[in-house]
Write a structure and sequence with these properties.
Elements: H1 49-64, H2 78-98, H3 101-106, H4 120-130, E1 134-137, H5 144-152, E2 155-158, H6 176-183, H7 190-204, H8 208-223, E3 226-229, E4 232-235, H9 238-241, H10 244-251, E5 256-259, E6 278-282, H11 285-299, H12 302-309
The protein binds norleucine (NLE) and fe (ii) ion.
Length: 320
């Protein structure tokens, strides 16, 4: 066993009873937690029955989706479009100063406009071409094991519903603005993708307590991570990049910045009580990928590491 309590994997003595998913089809996308079905009392849409019905209808698209099928296109209502337009407009003013260089490089690939809510299927095709990643629709916040396992198959589970119009600047849960503005552009950067892929591969063989630790690692990097550029802290975490309020909060320096260490005990995650009190800092995505590959090797046997991490990115260039 390692000092931090993680167990060394022993691939030749059947100590891994769990079935490791062999394909994306084996990763369940139906087990939705928390906000997924019933909105909590502190959710901005709690008392809005029409909002809840609309979400349920959109969630059913994800429930019916099968791996390999195109993601159904959704016609957003004028009210939903307005929320998207507001969020994009406000955030665009903050990106130049607050977003990391990789985000700024990738954002134009998607050609976002305030006049139309982008479709998951179109973005998924761009990602396939850029990094080999893809999007799979999901009804809400997925069970952490399934969500992390998806990353091992270079697949990002994404919601398709819109946040409640009463609070465009911050929502406590994922929504289509968060996925499209926060996650999608970063998934077009291959160094970032390598880092996220390692988290996914680590999750394949993780026991429940390691899944919990990986969930926090994911939270403090992919959701709320910052990267140091010179003497400035720039956002790469999707929870910052998709929230005007969070981005301002991070940039005004009222929070604490600590170096990211995947082996350290990670603080309790918080989202219900507003903005993050601390952000974890990467030196670069290459450095983060290296840290996470080492962490992954403590959990995942070398043959599985090799099978998943060394697999060449599929070449989709000749299909377009
Ligand atoms: N607070 C983020 C936003 O408003 O876009 C969403 C975070 C989801 C974990
Ligand atoms: Fe997210």
């Amino acid at each position: 066993n390692f000092k931090d309590g993680t167990k060394a994997a022993a691939p030749d003595t059947q100590t891994v009873p769990r079935h490791i998913p062999q394909s994306l089809e084996e990763v369940d996308n139906g087990q939705i937690l928390g906000f997924g079905a019933d909105l909590a009392e502190d959710h901005p849409g709690y008392l809005d029955q029409a909002y809840k019905d609309r979400r349920m209808a959109i969630a059913n698209i994800a429930r019916r989706h099968r791996v390999g099928d195109p993601i159904p296109r959704l016609e957003y209502t004028p009210d939903e479009l307005q929320v998207w337009g507001t969020v994009l407009h406000e955030l665009r003013n903050l990106y130049d100063d607050g977003a990391c260089a990789e985000f700024l490089r990738c954002l134009p690939l998607f050609d976002f406009s305030e006049d139309v809510v982008p479709q998951l299927e179109d973005l998924s095709q761009i990602l396939r071409r850029e990094t080999g990643w893809q999007i799979r629709p999901v009804a809400g916040l997925l069970h952490p094991r399934d969500f992390l396992n998806g990353l091992a198959f270079q697949t990002f589970h994404s919601t398709q519903y819109m946040r409640h119009p009463s609070k465009p600047n911050y929502t406590p849960e994922p929504d289509v603005c968060h996925e499209l503005l926060g996650h999608v552009p970063m998934l077009a950067d291959s160094a970032f993708c390598d880092m996220v892929h390692s988290i996914g591969v680590a999750s394949l063989c993780a026991d429940d307590s390691q899944i919990w630790h990986l969930t926090k690692i994911y939270w403090y990097t992919v959701e709320f991570g910052v990267v140091q550029e010179g003497d400035e802290m720039k956002a790469f975490g999707a929870g910052i990049l998709s929230s005007y309020g969070e981005m301002k909060h991070m940039r005004t320096g009222n929070a604490e910045f600590l170096p990211f260490d995947p082996n350290a005990k990670q603080p309790k995650m918080s989202y219900k009580d507003g903005y993050q009190k601390r952000y974890f800092v990467l030196k670069s995505f290459e450095d983060g990928a290296q840290q996470l590959r080492e962490y992954c090797s403590k959990i995942t046997p070398p043959d599985i590491m090799a099978r998943f991490l060394n697999k060449a990115t599929p070449d989709y260039s000749d299909q377009s």
